[in-house]
């Protein structure tokens, strides 16, 4: 590699004769130098949250009642091939038991903070698999289903967000089993838009955003679903 004259378009940056795709050993130093120059006038103690950001974009697209917001969420979830069931709190245990039976589930993974009453109608023959540190991906691969709550659901995008709270468990229990039953409390946990959803979330928590099943179209643009995580959701 032979250093050349400084690039006139980028003063201080030298061009070279290195082959395309090759990375200069000084690339990291150059990037860090640019960052330091850009931050030269920023007080060292200043944090991103210390500077207010004007947010003039539309926070919600349209004016909806809470009921209409829930309907929109259900519509978008159905577009993603999730199966939406509506019920009330007293009937929830029976619904969960039926969904597990319809799936033929012989085992179900459960977060530690999931209400016991939710599984009260599930037969003892269905093995309960608690979410513990000892539970490996190999163990989860043999689990039929998983039941969790959620942190928030976003109607405009049909997104369900998990934040690893006690009633949701670790991320892996929702990514490995093929069948995920997610309980959304409506209307309390349903918001219209992503900006509204972000206001309810702690950015320091491990967030999982679910907008439909995992899918890829990498091979000949042929869409294949369920390649990284649960194929169906209910």
Compact description:
With about 230 residues, the protein is of the alpha/beta class. The chain contains 6 helices and 12 strands. The strands form 4 sheets. A 4-stranded parallel β-sheet has the order 4-3-5-8, with helices on one face. Strands 9-6-7-10 form a 4-stranded mixed β-sheet. A two-stranded antiparallel ribbon has the order 1-2.
Helix content: 10-25%
Give me the strand/helix succession. EEHHHEEHEEEHEEHEEE
**Per CATH, which architecture of the domain at 66-225?**
3-Layer(aba) Sandwich
What is the helix tally? 6
Question: How confident overall, as mean pLDDT?
Answer: 88
CATH classification, class level of the domain at 66-225: Alpha Beta
N/C terminus separation: 57 Å
CATH fold group of the domain at 66-225: Rossmann fold
Share in β-strands: 15-25%
CATH superfamily of the domain at 66-225: NagB/RpiA/CoA transferase-like
In the sheet with the most strands, the strands line up as: 4-3-5-8
Q: What Rg do the Cα atoms give?
A: 24 Å
Poorly predicted regions are 6-16
The secondary-structure class comes to alpha/beta
Question: Shape from CA axes?
Answer: globular
Largest beta-sheet details: 4 strands, parallel
Count the E strands.
12
Protein name: LUD domain-containing protein
Domain LUD: 145-230
Region (Disordered): 1-28
Biased composition (Polar residues): 1-26
């Amino acid at each position: 590699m032979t250093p050349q004259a400084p690039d006139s378009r980028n003063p201080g940056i030298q061009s070279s004769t290195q082959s395309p795709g090759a990375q200069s050993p000084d690339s990291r130093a150059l990037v860090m130098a640019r960052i330091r120059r850009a931050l030269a006038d920023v007080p060292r103690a200043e944090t991103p949250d210390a500077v207010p950001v004007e947010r003039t974009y539309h926070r919600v697209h349209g004016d909806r009642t809470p009921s209409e917001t829930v309907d929109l969420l259900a519509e978008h979830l159905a577009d993603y091939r999730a199966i939406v069931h509506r019920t009330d709190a007293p009937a929830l245990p029976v619904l969960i038991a039926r969904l597990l039976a319809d799936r033929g589930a012989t085992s179900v993974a459960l977060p530690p903070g999931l209400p016991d009453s939710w599984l009260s109608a599930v037969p003892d023959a269905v093995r309960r698999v608690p979410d513990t540190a000892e539970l490996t991906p190999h163990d989860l691969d043999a689990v039929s289903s998983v039941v969790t709550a959620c942190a928030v659901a976003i109607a405009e995008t049909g997104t369900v967000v998990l934040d690893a709270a006690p009633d949701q468990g670790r991320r892996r229990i929702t990514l490995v089993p093929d069948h995920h039953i997610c309980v959304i409390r409506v209307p309390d946990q349903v918001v219209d838009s992503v900006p509204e959803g972000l206001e309810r979330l702690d950015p320091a928590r491990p967030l999982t955003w679910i907008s439909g099943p995992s899918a890829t179209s990498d091979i000949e643009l042929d869409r294949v679903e369920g390649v990284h995580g649960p194929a169906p959701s209910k």
